[in-house]
Amino acid sequence: MHFVGSRVRIECKNRDTNDLAYTVEGFTNSKGEYKILVNSDRRDEFCDVVLIRSSDPMCAEPNTGRDRARVVLTSNNGMVSNTRFANSMGFLSNEPLASCTKILQQYEFSEDQF
Known about the structure:
1 helix; 6 strands; Allergen BRSn20; disulfide bond
């Protein structure tokens, strides 16, 4: 499921001090995709795309471990294209899917174990 208007941010941190050096935000389209223009080479910084806010209040909690994705934002790495792709990220639903109970039973788990 994709939500229009969910907010994402690129955060780049200094490799030595871990201080925030650069941020820029964007919003998802109807396909859950976003395009964010970074106007400068981020060379030796660590850059992550981070989930900020879902546009759906019923699916608003960032999924820990899937709430950010590392991206390399330099042209000094042998990559020809200026386009970068981040791994998928996601928010957790407030309500489990109807099929969850059946899947848990197949793996012999109970809902109390979660």
